[in-house]
Task: inverse folding
């Protein structure tokens, strides 16, 4: 009598990448091999917390990958909560092995002191995500027009993100800004006498047509509202007058419209700040 192949999970290693890329290309047919190869190149270069895996976890049977979940771990600047964030991304298991799918998520969630986020759950997976202990922390998206926001009266100088600003800043913020510039994001510093405030935006097109930018990182939503007018005008000069901002409700002091239920986001652990998608699949892998 033949013995069925054993199904097991473990961390993804370099030797697994070709097979995992093939698996992901089958599981997400709108993404080609080049997309996933770029994603793994960025994960390879990314410096996350040492207690989290470099790439994620693979489910294998008979030595072949049959399931995968990617993990992107990151440390936040001092004062931010949570301190350590992990984006669970690109969860896929071959149909014949779906009964083993919870093994992958259980493997990732065993890490303590980490907030896990799912920033792009497919609608049919939401009930599963909620059973795993995730709760919604962003209820929709706000389409802002920051260029017409009220002037704050604060003296501010906008500076491109490549150079260190001539004002107090945190070294982790400078690393974050430079990393996201390399991902293709628009990064700027709002420099005031008190300190430099970093802002990161991902260039996007809504419905593949309307140019806009998505807010990937700001020190706080209050800081974005405070500097919305100069930031919005700088983005408008780049042909991007609209900014997509995760939100729980309409944002006071920021002109725009709230779309409830649009691209909600989930977390397990201390809820992340609204306006912080740094080192997630959105800027690192692209949409």
Result:
């Amino acid at each position: 009598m033949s013995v069925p192949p054993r199904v097991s999970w473990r961390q993804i290693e370099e030797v697994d990448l070709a097979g995992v890329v093939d698996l992901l290309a089958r599981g997400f047919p709108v993404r080609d091999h080049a997309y996933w190869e770029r994603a793994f190149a960025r994960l390879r270069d990314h410096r996350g917390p040492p207690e989290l895996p470099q790439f994620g976890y693979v489910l294998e049977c008979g030595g072949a990958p049959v399931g995968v979940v990617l993990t992107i771990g990151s440390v936040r600047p001092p004062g931010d909560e949570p301190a350590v964030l992990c984006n669970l991304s690109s969860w896929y298991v071959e149909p014949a092995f779906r009964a083993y799918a919870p093994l992958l998520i259980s493997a990732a969630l065993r890490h303590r002191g980490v907030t896990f986020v799912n920033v792009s759950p497919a609608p049919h997976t939401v009930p599963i995500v909620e059973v795993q202990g995730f709760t919604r922390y962003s209820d929709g998206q706000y389409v802002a027009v920051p260029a017409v926001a009220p002037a704050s009266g604060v003296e501010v100088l906008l500076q491109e993100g490549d150079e260190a600003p001539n004002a107090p800043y945190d070294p982790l913020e400078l690393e974050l800004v430079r990393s996201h510039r390399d991902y293709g994001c628009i990064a700027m510093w709002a420099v005031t006498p008190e300190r430099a405030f970093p802002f990161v935006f991902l260039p996007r097109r809504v419905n593949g047509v309307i140019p806009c930018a998505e807010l990937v990182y700001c020190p706080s939503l209050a800081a974005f509202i405070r500097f919305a007018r100069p930031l919005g005008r700088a983005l408008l000069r780049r042909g991007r007058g609209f900014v997509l901002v995760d939100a729980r409700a309409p944002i006071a002091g920021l002109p725009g419209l709230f779309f409830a239920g649009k691209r909600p986001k989930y977390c397990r652990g201390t809820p992340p700040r609204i306006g912080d998608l740094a080192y997630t699949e959105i800027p690192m892998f692209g949409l």
